[in-house]
Amino acid sequence: MHWFDRLSRQLAAAPEVQTTRRGMLKGVGAAAVAAPFASPAAAYAKNSIKGRRAFSVCLNCVNAAHREYVADNRNIKKFFARYGKKPKLTAVQSAALASQLAGNRSAYIQDVNACRTGPACAPSLPPLPPTGVTGTTTCPPGTAPCPGGGDAIATCCYGGDACCVCGNVNGGYICCAGVIGCMCC
Amino acid sequence: MADAGAAEIKSLLDTPSASLAELMIALATALSAAQQDDNATVPPSTFSTISALGTYYRNLGNSVRSIRTSSSAKGQVLEALTQLEAGLAGLSKGLREGTSDDATADLTAAQQQSAQANKQLARANSALS
What we know:
The complex is a heterodimer.
Chain A: H1 3-13, H2 22-34, H3 39-81, H4 91-117, E1 143-147, E2 153-158, E3 162-165, E4 173-176
Antiparallel strand pairs in A: 1-2, 3-4
Helix pairs in contact in A: 1-3, 2-3, 3-4
Chain B: H1 4-14, H2 18-32, H3 45-65, H4 73-96, H5 101-127
Helix pairs in contact in B: 2-3, 3-4, 4-5
């Protein structure tokens, strides 16, 4: 079974992805419970949870592609191990291996791009508008400002996400998971 | 019956090389060390290894070229080695292009060129017997 199908099944079976960011998710969840009537805070916490979960799914997808790629190349090294400490190779054999290595890399790039442009890393959270009183706009806690026109803050992205200039969206910005950079635009 | 030149070319192709194996292991190792960044960046040593592999095939081609034979398989061997060099150049280019669509196209082309070279070398090797 291809890793992408395996990953899809795992995610279907356990929609709440277990990651090292679990503690952070709990923290945000608790904040939402602590202030159930503060609707902006609750909305922020809810979005933040969504954001972290989306980040985890994306990260898992990219990590799985990388693991698969390293395993493919490790198999090539295992091939050599059969020939002892000082392996030798003919030109015909090396041509076959060169083909395999190029193919592995090509498949890896396609897998990573499938993660980036597919549902795993699709931008699920729109940027947040800045808050604050006139003249002193700030971003909500846990988010970072994207540069705006002049000194103004245009939008805010969740921490760790990249502010990406994206011409085809309203506001001109999109927030992409840091691990994938601005390729989700 | 193959002539002496054909036998010499066949011997060159059939003699396994430790340095060639070392280079391929180095390449597999370097490619495995690709970073999980935006460009899946590989270590700089990858490119020098690919370059060394290209030099190996070029030298092999020069050795084959200097051998006199009436066998038409010599031409096939030279063609395959040139194709193999082109495949390595494509691999190098594809690696420099990161994770772009161009990279995928170049890497796939490199894969096909190397596979084609492998088949042609094997065919020519049989014809040299």
